[in-house]
Write a structure and sequence with these properties.
By secondary structure, this protein is mostly helical. The protein is 66% helix and 0% strand. The protein has helices at 2-7, 24-51, 58-77, 101-118, 128-135, 139-150, 154-171, 176-183, 188-199, 203-216. α5 packs across α6 (139-150). The longest helix is centred in the first third of the chain and has 28 residues, at 24-51. The protein starts with a helix and ends with a helix.
């Protein structure tokens, strides 16, 4: 149940998850949480079988629940989205904090300076935890400041910068895939989804519109 609650809070609730992973880690952890609950229900079914003297059902219950759990967890363990997790995402923003406005502005100034100087958003393995460590600030303070200032979660804040980089790469003649990698995205689905959200067009469509507008200019 704890896993389900944590994963339902969005990508900021998984600070060690790669920000480029999008909604996949949250979905995976939800499936794991549901699987654990199903396993517990299987144990309860075994107890009920014993209470009602239906011992013949016990081997079937054990076989079905155990096999299902092993197959599911084995498949999930192959996902690269879990490799850097120890704990982004229905993409819902974290609830607004009650931080002092001046403190929020200070955190955002430090964050913007860090992004400008070190361009951390180009790292496809970037995590919220890493950003907080660079700023020497608590994870919640960083995510809360971003949410209060932009209305978005950390993943969307970082992806907006990545999309800007991708746009410049596309305009300089890079392919969509090359621009995606240059900008710090490592999955095409997340790149396309974020590009469409921010630019309201797919990468190839956006580039075509830019060319047409330039031609009219």
């Amino acid at each position: 149940m704890t896993i389900l609650i944590a994963s339902s809070r969005g990508s900021d609730a998984l600070p060690i998850t790669r920000l480029s992973a999008g909604i996949v880690p949250g979905l995976i952890w939800r499936v794991i949480g549901v699987s654990l609950i199903v396993s517990a229900l299987g144990d309860a079914a075994i107890v009920l079988a014993q209470i009602f003297d239906q011992g013949a059902w016990q081997p079937w219950i054990v076989a079905v629940s155990s096999t299902g759990m092993l197959l599911l967890l084995g498949a999930l363990s192959l996902s690269s989205s879990l490799w850097t997790q120890t704990a982004d995402d229905d993409e819902a923003s974290e609830p607004k904090t009650q931080s002092d406005p001046e403190e929020v502005a200070k955190i955002m100034a430090l964050l913007e300076a860090l992004m400008m100087q070190q361009k951390l958003y180009l790292d496809p393995d970037l995590t919220l935890n890493q950003i907080a460590r660079r700023l020497v600030l608590p994870v919640k303070a960083v995510s809360g400041a971003i949410n209060r200032t932009t209305g978005e979660n950390v993943s969307r804040y970082i992806n907006a910068r990545r999309v800007d980089v991708a746009c410049k790469a596309l305009q300089h003649g890079e392919s969509v895939t090359s621009a995606m990698l240059t900008a710090g995205f490592n999955t095409k689905s997340n790149f396309n989804r974020e590009f469409l959200r921010i630019k309201h067009a797919a990468p190839s469509q956006w580039l075509k519109l830019q060319a047409e507008n330039k031609g009219y200019g």
